[in-house]
């Protein structure tokens, strides 16, 4: 009861933060992928309200994680194990091309990293067949405020975000662009890697907007 009742009354018990928006369709897929690949087993997603935590994560203005930042998360991914760094506000710190190379071979971007490689995130396509259903589920079950227009244009929304990420990768990394020069247009947009780039980026937005 102590755990469940506050959750059922989340809107009343958690202060809202205007900068916090529901996950886009592609970010929601990325979050599911993050869970599926076990990323949350080695990375926590919470800067705790202690001085050493705030200093460690460069929160000079006291920006530890707030409850209102997680109102659209189901399930929550706070975590407690830190084999890798906490990721709550790591998103946006590195460019999209960094995430591409980091997933393919972590040692390429982070010397001495013990993180395993995830080459299948580059070689495999994303199954988006349930994407719209996931958005509807979040709205109907957890009252996430998606509009009808957002649901109806979910595929286009995801396509636009994927295209933006790919454009950034090609501008930032000529070597990656060269790999895809002779491949069909839109090849990289289909890959799962883009989703992780989006979700890493999403975890930093609150800190940036509050500064």
Question: How would you describe what is shown here?
Answer:
There is one protein chain. With 211 residues, the protein is an all-alpha fold. Helices cover 48% and strands 0% of the residues. The protein contains 13 helices and no strands. It has helices spanning 4-8, 10-13, 25-36, 51-56, 96-104, 106-109, 120-123, 131-142, 148-152, 154-172, 174-179, 193-202, 205-210. The longest helix is centred in the last third of the chain and has 19 residues, at 154-172.
How many distinct helices?
A: 13
Shape: globular
Number of extended strands: 0
Q: On the 0-100 scale, what is the average pLDDT?
A: 84
Low-pLDDT ranges? 207-211
What is the rounded distance between the termini? 37 Å
Category by helix and strand content: mainly alpha
Rg, Å, rounded: 18 Å
- Biggest sheet layout: none
Tell me the fraction of residues in β-strands, as a range: under 5%
Bin the helical content: 40-55%
**SSE order, as H and E?**
HHHHHHHHHHHHH
């Amino acid at each position: 009861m102590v755990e469940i009742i506050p959750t059922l009354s989340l809107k009343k018990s958690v202060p809202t933060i205007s900068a916090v928006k529901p996950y886009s369709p592609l970010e929601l897929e990325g979050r599911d992928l993050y869970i599926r690949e076990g990323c949350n087993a080695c990375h926590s997603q919470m800067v705790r309200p202690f001085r050493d935590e705030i200093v460690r994560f460069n929160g000079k203005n006291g920006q530890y994680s707030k409850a209102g930042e997680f109102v659209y998360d189901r399930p929550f991914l706070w975590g407690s194990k830190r084999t890798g760094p906490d990721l709550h506000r790591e998103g946006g710190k590195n460019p999209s091309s960094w995430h591409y190379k980091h997933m393919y071979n972590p040692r390429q971007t982070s010397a001495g990293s013990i993180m395993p490689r995830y080459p299948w995130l580059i070689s495999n396509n994303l199954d988006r067949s349930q994407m719209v259903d996931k958005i509807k589920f979040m709205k109907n079950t957890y009252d996430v405020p998606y509009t009808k227009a957002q649901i109806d244009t979910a595929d286009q929304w995801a396509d636009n975000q994927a295209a933006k990420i790919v454009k950034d990768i090609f501008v930032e990394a000529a070597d990656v662009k060269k790999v895809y020069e002779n491949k069909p247009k839109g090849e990289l947009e289909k890959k799962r890697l883009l989703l992780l780039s989006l979700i890493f980026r999403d975890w930093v937005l609150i800190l940036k907007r509050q500064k």
